[in-house]
What we know:
The protein is built from 18 helices and eleven strands. The chain is an alpha+beta fold. Strands 4-3-2-1-5-11 form a six-stranded antiparallel β-sheet. It has a three-stranded mixed β-sheet with strand order 6-10-7, with helices on one face. Residues 1-28 have low confidence and may be disordered.
Amino acid sequence: MFGLRRFTLCWRLAWCVPGAVAAGPASAQTFDFLYIEANEGNASGGHAALRFGEQVYHFQHVEPGLIRLYRDDFAAFRFAYTDQQNRSLRGQRIEVAAEVYQALQEVCKRRLAQQNRELNQLRDLQEDFELSLSLNAAEPAPPLQLRALGYFLDNYRLTPLPTLANDRGDSPELAELRDMAAQHYGPEFLAQKRQALWQELQTLSPSDPNGSALRPGQLTFAQHYKNRLLNLAALDVLLAALPPRSDAWLTATDALFRLSAAQRNALRQYRDATRADLIRLLHSQRPDWGYPLLVGMARLHALQQSLTSGHLTVLDRRSADADPYAPAVDLPAALKYSRQLLNAANAQLAALEPLDERGYAVIEHSANALFALLRAETEPDAAALPRFSNTPDKAAVGDGPRVPLPAAISAAYRAGAAKRLADYRQQLFERYAYHLWQRNCVTEIFQLLNATVAALPAAATSADPIQSAEHALGAYLDSAFPNPIPFAAFDRVGQAYRSIASYRLPAYRERQIRARYRTQPDWWVDLQESNSLSSSLYRWHDQDAAFVFFTQDAVWPRPLQGGFNLAAAALETGYGLLSWPWDQGFHILKGLKGGAVSLPELVFFNIRKGSFPQLLPDFKPGAG
């Protein structure tokens, strides 16, 4: 689904757009079945979701071929689909008993948490397998990306004794933190802790190299190895009092970033609280304490720089190897919006409650977005917003020591890691494999609804899931054709379930055309906005295939307009054949995609509606 995941991550900071149909209070006994109309892009045939108040649950196809549940704020969901993707959204409001409503919410939450755990475990097993291929007594450990270490180093090589070269001078912040650790835990605490970690890493060995599966909560060998390597790296940074790299943070002298006396006092209190948290963290029993220690030490420097300069300084959260968030953003509008976000985030510095980690992270995130846009003003090649990480994680390459595994254990570990990965991947495919018709965003919703109501205490007297669904929802709907088609499913829900209301939230382009009808002649608006060449609303961008006419406005001329659109797709494909050597087939794929969404127009069916990925949401101060 284009944009929504990134949009939710990057902009869910301080806004909330109210829905046209307001959600009821927390005790309401209604939920909404949502249908999002078709358009070019992901979920091109339409999409379906469940809405509980201001939360939306929906299933998406993800790599490697699985169907996954996501949860989003309704405001973000609506904006991404009806505005950026220019799709109208329809809803059926379904009335159910209170216990049914609560059960459905709980099942969605449990499944979301379960899938997150399972996919995280799949990632861990993949990492364990990759480490097993080269980690043995005869070869060095493979280089690893160590999160947050990049704020201090480019590369890190572990040695028996701390030998980090420090040609930048001691960091006063880390020197003070090191002295505080000595006062709390003894003068040899850090050196002894490092020596113990080094010994642990030297003797590290898979606990059960032949094990067929991980126990709940069990860490993989790769996680044990990586945690110890990062913990040692964090200790080496602290012992060397190494200051951050010059590109670790972002700062500016603009008036917007100037801090008042009250704001500096709030940051000073947060700096002192962070320092105390880091001292406690050094004595923590959690296995991955190195990462939060590195983030905290880097933030100490950013906080001190803010206090010294009087201007806000934050860690750089840009992901260097990630795709940009949005192409060719409207810089003036984006800058205005980002300034509003930062002002709203900075308001927490004047609040009565002390600033906490969550509040500071919001300031850090919004400042990163604004810095990126200010950079785009002066550097044309930076006109796309970078992707930001959830937490500061600028990585460095870590080169760990040899782990002397005997040949037999090494071979068993490699075989076991490969088997655990293959078996777990197969389990996930059996449980969540995506299929265009048999298992998609609609069929998963119906399966979830039916299974949930069948498990209710009230359904215990009946073994028939059809009767349970009829009693709780008004009808039993399954994956039988045509229910897997989103628009057909929406109609069936309205006819069969206890729908007490329906609504439609029009797409961005439709709303803008209606607004123009109020100030311009209808015929002129229709003529101007009928095509992508003369439209005052739409500007072509490389996320849409080339086309000429918008065909959603009228049915009878659709085949003729579709013919022109098909010709435009053919032209783009032809151009792609010429540009293939330098664009890796980008325009060929776009042209073929344009042809695929133009063909239905020849038989009066519309899919493509154009999209507006550059749009930004309305700012709502005080929302969150």
